[in-house]
Design a protein that fits this description.
Blueprint (H helix, E strand, L loop, with lengths): L10 E5 L2 E4 L4 E4 L2 H4 L8 H11 L13 H13 L7 E6 L2 H16 L5 E5 L8 H6 L3 H4 L9 E4 L4 H7 L5 E6 L2 E2 L5 E2 L2 H14 L2 E5 L23 E4 L10 E6 H4 L15 H16 L2 H17 L4 E7 L2 E6 L4 H10 L2 E2 L1 E4 L2 E4 L7 H16 L1
Parallel strand pairs: 3-15, 5-6, 5-7, 7-10, 10-11
Antiparallel strand pairs: 1-2, 2-3, 4-12, 8-9, 11-12, 13-14, 14-17, 16-17
Bound molecules: pyridoxal-5'-phosphate (PLP).
Length: 380
């Protein structure tokens, strides 16, 4: 169906930070399939895990026990606790939108009848299902699909007073925020904002749900974006990087919140199946061995400094290896298209900014090469 524009190029192979199209042309991938292939393309540990699991057990449904998913859940719980068990439980699904759907249903189930409203921010992106579309704070995306499910309100981003006013009603159950608004333009939250929201949630008995679908698993220079801000959320959603390209999502919730769900409240056929969780287990093992948060912080500093020094770049924003370069007078769409022709995959995240989300294992040489391509593109 025509939900996307005609693709400018067809890729047939990838290895590390490199992609190859159907004519054999090589590209440097600084988008990672929208922040998904955080370990680069065709990572051998993920490929081996998939092959091995495919020969062992692919799927039995969630009516029966399996061994891989619980292992991945335990690892995620420890990463959310920054090295210590965080006391949570995990629901596995297949995408970011599904992880957020789970969080939204859990919030309603936990809060009980009459308390169903979720407050999110303008400029946010939480998915394309009807509920996550309404949670997404971009009203222009809502219009063709009205009426959307009831119970979503939006407030100005990074504005604690606006959140204070919006969360005062009896019917509010939860707040849903990204640590860095990714699709909304790569705009980080401030530490004061997250701390103020946590305080409001504690005072009013609301759930703080953090959407780490784009920011989670090392990309921002910490395991999870919220860890920059010194707060602990009640619910954390993730997807993208968890499978390095294998579709998997997860919704983590602290124990007493998670136990609001009863058997039959929520379900999935594929979620948590051995094939997808075997990929996630391999991804998390490599990520821990390679200390990807530290690598992302260092590589992000190099990439940011390189981009900032380019004439025509007005500034760089973001955290770790989720960055946007604001262009002085070039149109970002034209610049991204010229970069693609020159062998660099990036995307225009707004009319005036390019987004960079390379592999977390990107090398210094690859960063320098990408910066040189951007400089060349902006110089013409
Ligand atoms: N939440 C955030 C922060 C995202 O960036 C995205 C996708 O870009 C989603 C949710 C939706 O994820 P998916 O496309 O896997 O449904």
């Amino acid at each position: 169906m025509p939900t996307y524009p005609e693709p400018p190029v067809t890729f047939v192979r990838g290895e590390g930070s490199r992609l190859y199209d159907d004519s054999g042309k090589e590209y440097l991938d600084f988008l990672s399939g929208l922040a998904v292939t955080s370990l680069g393309h065709s990572h051998p540990a993920v490929a081996d895990a998939l092959c091995e699991q495919a020969k062992t057990l692919l799927h039995v449904s969630n009516l029966y026990g399996t061994t891989v998913g619980p292992e991945v859940a335990t690892t995620l719980d420890r990463l959310i606790g920054d090295g210590q068990p965080a006391g949570g439980r995990v629901f596995f699904c297949n995408s970011g939108a599904e992880a957020n759907e789970c969080a939204l249903k859990l919030a309603r189930r936990w809060a009980g009848p009459g308390r169903h409203v979720v407050i999110s921010a303008y400029g946010s992106f939480h998915g394309r299902t009807l509920a996550t579309l309404h949670a997404t704070g971009q009203p222009e995306k809502h219009e063709p699909f009205q009426p959307l499910p009831e119970g979503f309100r939006h407030v100005a981003w990074n504005d604690a007073d606006a959140m204070d006013r919006a969360t005062s009603g009896e019917e509010v159950a939860a707040v849903l925020l990204e640590p860095v608004q990714g699709e909304g333009g790569v705009n980080p939250a401030t530490g004061e904002y997250f701390a103020a929201v946590r305080r409001l949630c504690d005072e009013r008995g609301l759930l703080m749900i953090v959407d780490e679908v784009q920011t989670g698993l090392g990309r921002t220079g910490r395991w999870f974006g919220f860890q920059h801000f010194g707060v602990q959320p009640d619910v954390v959603t993730m997807a993208k990087a968890l499978g390095n390209g294998v579709p998997i999502g997860a919704c983590w919730a602290v124990g007493d919140v998670a136990s609001a769900f009863r058997p039959g409240d929520h379900a999935t056929t594929f979620g948590g199946q051995p094939l997808a969780t075997a990929a996630a287990r391999a991804v998390l093992a490599v990520m821990q061995k390679e200390r990807v948060p530290e690598r992302a912080a260092a590589a992000g500093a190099r990439l940011g400094a390189g981009l900032e020094a380019i004439p025509g770049v007005a500034g760089v924003r973001g955290l770790g290896l989720l960055l946007a370069a604001r262009l002085e007078d070039a149109d970002a769409r034209t610049a991204a298209s010229a970069a693609l022709d020159a062998g660099l995959v990036v995307n225009p995240i707004s009319p005036t900014a390019l987004r960079f989300a390379p592999s977390l294992l990107v090398t210094d040489d690859e960063i320098d090469e990408a910066v040189a391509i951007v400089a060349k593109v902006l110089s013409v």
